[in-house]
Each structure stands twice: as structure tokens, then as C-alpha cells.
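Shipment paperwork, digital attachment
Item: protein structure file
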Amino acid sequence: MGVVRKILSANNFGSYNSFSWDEESIGDFRRYNLLYGWNYSGKTTLSRMFAVMGGSDIPDGIEGEFVGLIQNKEDTTYEWNLIDEPTPLAIKVFNRDFINSNFSTDHNAPAVHILGENIKHLRDKIGKRNRQFLRIDDSVQQVISKKENHKELLDGEKTSTARVINEVIGGRYNRRNLDSTQPRIRANPTNYLLDEEQVENLKRTLATSSDYQSITIQKPVLPDVNSFVSQCHELLSRTATNQAIQALKEDSELENWLRTALNLHQETNTCRFCGGDIDESIFERLRGHFDKEQEKLRRDVNFLLSQIPEIFNYSIPQQSSIYPHLRTEYSKNVQVLENWRLKFVSVLAILRSRLQKKIEDNLDQVLNLEIELPSTEEWDRHWEELDAIRSTQNDLTNNTSTLISESKSKLEDHYIAKLIQSFDFESHEEKQDWYDTLLEKYSCLKKACTEKISALEDEIRRSSVAVEKLNEVLLLMLPEGHIEVFPITENTFEFLRNGVAATNLSDGERTAVTFAYFLVSLEDNDQKLEDTIVFIDDPISSLDSNHVYSVWALINQRLKTAKQLFVSTHNNELFTLIKDEWVKHRTQQQNFIRDHEGYWVSRYVNEQGEHLSKIETLPELLRKSKSEYQFIFSLLHNFTENENPTIHEAYTSPNLLRKFLEAYLGFRQPSGGNWKGKLDILFKEEVKRKEIYKFCDDASHLQKPTRIQEHPSYIFGAQTICKEVVEAVKRVDEMHYNSLCECI
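Attachment content:
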């Protein structure tokens, strides 16, 4: 736990509005801190800041915020602010709020009281925690119901899909099998989806897996079409000149008959058909028609025609002999190959047609050949794919169990992928996770609630005030009152005065009893004072001056081991006692010893007429002087000498003047009577005495400083009256006046 080094800032927190710690003029809070300020200066509000840092609620009526600078045991600092919901510090605060919270008189018996907020409200807190536990438990049941309903929807979809898969593949397939598979499919369900034909093929494969055999697929040898094309180009471009007979050219059958006849009559002029003589001129004319070059070209063309096949076919297994789940791929490749074959046959037909035309039309004519050959790479690739299907078919035939397993796996993946695409698994599972997170949160809340109830009950058992210690402190604080405490129950006590029920405790006695309880409770519940920051705000409020020394002694004796101590007071006597204990005396000055420091808490009025509080370093006069008398005079004197007095100076001047006159006139005339009756020491005129008294009495109770702004002459009038009093002191008591001036 840390210590508080400063209040960095405060905004609209009571009288601390737009407050910032003056880093240049104010040192950090030390281990022991004395804060002095008059009533309503902001001391109690400051103590409330410390109470909030200790875990108390912000008091009603305060809506602002503040930031504290905390130094932890590692000597590192961090900012404590309400927005970040920080961990409370180990801080205990005694102030009016503590008195009101820890001392209850709400009983029929006038001398019986509840003492201790940490007991008074513990039972209420336990009741609230029990009700909170029931509300949380009710919320848990609602979440469980919603989660189960949501899970039923999710499980129903899974069960339906598992049932379909079981009907298709068998094997007693259930939702647990689906749950183990679906994470793999979830990554990319589209990779596992099949079309209707593929699904039906896989189903048929499962149903007829024993009906299929190994197959053979033999890739046919292609005719050398490139060579055919090359030869065809060469023959179509060749010519042979002859003395052609027009009639023969126009009658190819006759031409062929005569060619044969000419060959038969190479060695004779006798006609082998009729036996008659043949005129040699006829042979010459026919030989001119059928010369050697032409006949050679014809023979070459006819030879190439005999080499080029008219058809090209091959044999492959029927599709029905292929496993159903392979048929789609098989059919696709078969169709591509058939298309290729038709193109190839078309090429052969074109080659034969062009060669035939060469013979039929005129061997002397050059013919062109325009042809596009099909890609043999495509041919080879699809035969390889067919061979791969053959290999798969034969492997499956040789190992039917693998075929069945793979088919089942593909069907299972397909149906799960369909479920994933149609049902938003991620959203539903996120909802389930959200329900689980909510249940875990509620479980933690229930556990925390139970632990807090147990802790509260333990605290009640431990928080029983040690009556002996309480009476010991009361004897020091109220020695003349003889107030004693007797326990009635674990959290109610009866107060006796001189052995008789104390029916009416005064405000001072009530403050003393509560302060005694505060001191005793600091060591309750195994708390260690050396680990605790203690803030005491006006501990002698409602107590007379006889109690100042006992309060001072208790603070000095019992709280010196605190981790950090803050004492704020408006009582000059208590302030002086503590200050004298905490300072080191030197010539002309008094400085606080190490780890001790003093601060001035003041309230001022800004130009807008707002009451604002601030923390300052302790003024030198308060630091050196035994009383605040010199300090009050310095403020009045500065006001009277200021050429441009502020609204704040004017607003506070009536109170300052009243305090000064009460002290000064009391010194001058110690005998009874109030200060009003002693004003004749300074002023002989009755009118002037009434004016000054009226100014101090009425103006010191101004409720709204904005009235000063409504009356522009107020500042001038206030300064004039204060100056008259100061000059009167100088006139009637110059030695005293000069001595006061020397102090400032």
C-alpha cells in the first residue's frame, strides 16, 4: 500500500473547485502532517477525499472528482482517481461523518447506543449480499435455460444431419462422430461439397462395390500424320507435262483402261483383244498421253493414298464397368478423346481428298493444302488421365475396404459441409461461448458474494469493541465525566455516568466517545497501525479547552506509529501544541523536523463570488507564533494598505476584524463582558462604536459574497473601517502596534 503525497487536483468536489496543487510553493505531504484552518475553510472536505481513497462512498451532495498522487513502497508514484475505480488505500478517517455513522441513538432505552459503523451496517450489508446472491442465482437459472434451448437447436441440426449420414454410410454414425469431424470441414466447407451426380455415384459405389473388376486401357499408336502431311504437300505441288488426249482426260475410266492396255502391248503390235494389227502411230500418240514422269507422279500419289488410313479407331472399357464415383471424370476424358479422334479422322479424310483430287483433275496442276492438326499433347494428357482412372479402379478393386472407406468419408464430409453452409455454426457457438462466459461471470459473482458474506460475518465476530480499551481512553478524555461503557450485545452498548444510565450525552461527550472508539478500532480486526494512514479532522469539536491536552496526548501517544498521519484543526491551542511538538526551534524561525510539515487550509472568494478552498504552505507567522493573533493582524494590516483590495479580502475582513478586536480588547481589559462594551478603549464616539460593531456583527454573517458585487462601495467601506481600527490601535497603544508590525 502507498502513502498520499499530494492532492494533484480537484474539480467541483465540495469547496475544492478547479483546485490544483501548487508544485512550486507547497511541498509533498510528509509522514506527519498538521493542517490548520478556520471553520468552513475546507478541512472536512479534504478529510472526505481521504475517506473516499480509503473506500468510503462519496458523501451526498458532492458530485465532483479529485486526483491524488500516491507513492507506493517501491517509491514509484501513480495517480489515484475515481474514474479508474482504483483499489482503496489503507486509510482511516475521523471526522463528522465518522461520528454520525458510528454513533446511533435510535433506541427506546435512552442510554443504549449502537457504536461502530463497521458493525451497525454489517448486518444490512449481509442482507444486501444475500439478496444479491438470490438475484444472481435467478440470473444463472435464466442463462442456463436459454443456453439449453439454444443448444437443443444446435444439437437438433447436428442430430438430423448425423441421421442422414448414418442412413447413407451406416456404421452407427451419431452426433459425436459429426462433432469430431466438423472442425476440419469448417476451415473451407466448399472444398467438400459434391453435386447431386457425385453423391449418387458414391452411393452406388457403396451399394455395388463388389460388382466391379479390374480393367485394361491400351493407348493406341497414332498414324504418322506429320509424315503424311509432309508427303502430301510435296505431291500436290509436283507436275508432269504430257501430250494429253482431251477425250481421255475427260473420261478417267477409259484413261485407266487404255493405260492398262498400253502396258500389255509393250512387246507387240498385235491387239490382244481382237488379234488385229495396231498402227504404230496410235501407240506413239498413247505414249505421249501416258509419259513416264506423269505415271511416276500418279504412282506416288496412289501409294500415299494406300498408306493413309480411311478410319482411326481404338477400344476402351464401357462406362458401366467403371466405379460410379469415377464415371464423371472417366466420361469427361472419353468425350475429349472422341472429339480429338474425330478431328484426327477429319485430317486423314482431307489428305485423302486432296490426293484424290490431284489424280482426278490434272496431275499437271499444283494444289494447295491448308490443314490444322490436333494437339498430340492433349491426346497424350487425356490418355494419362484415363490410365490414372484405370489405376484407381484397379487399386480399389484390389482393396475394396479402402474404396468403401473413402466413399463414406466423402459422403460424410459432403453432408457436414452442407450443414455448415446452411446453419451458422460460428454464430451459434459464439452464443454458447457467450452463455458460458456469462455463467462463469455469475459463478465468480456468486463466489465473491459468498466470500464477502463470510468476510462480513467474520468482521462482525472480530469487530466487538474491546470495552476495557474503550473505557481506558474515555477515562483520559472525560476524567471528570466518569462515562463508562457496558456491552449489551455484539454491537449495542449502554453508557453510564457515575454508575447511572447516561440519558443525555452532550455533543462533547458524544464526540469523545466516538473518538475513543475510533482510536480503539484502529487496532481491531488484526489491523496494523504502521500499515495505516490516519486522518483526524477537528478531534476536539464540541469539546471545551480542558480536553485539548488529553486529545493532544492521545494523538501524540497512540498515533505516532501510523504509516502516515494527518491532523486538521481550527483550534489554535491544539494546533500550537502539536506544532510545538513537531518543530525544531531556532533563532528567528521555527522549522518542522524531518518527516513533519504544516499546511494552511483556507477559503477564499474569487471574482465570481464563489467560495473556494485551497491548500497552502503554513504562513510564517503561524509557523513562528504561539497564537494566530499576529497572523490575523497581518491580514488586516495588508488589507488596509492594499491599493487594489480584492473581493476576498473585503469579504473576510468583518470576521478578521471581529477576531482581532475580541483578542486585543480582551488583553486590554480582561474583566468580564463582550468586546462590544470595550470598544470605548479605541473610540470615544458612540456612533463610531455602533458602526464598527454593526460591521463586524452583521457583515461577518454575509451568506452570499455576490452581495459585495451588488454594492460596489462595499470594498471601499470595509477597507475604511478596518483602517480606522488599525489606526486607533496605533493611536492609543503605539508600542503594541509597533510590536505587531515588527512581527509581520
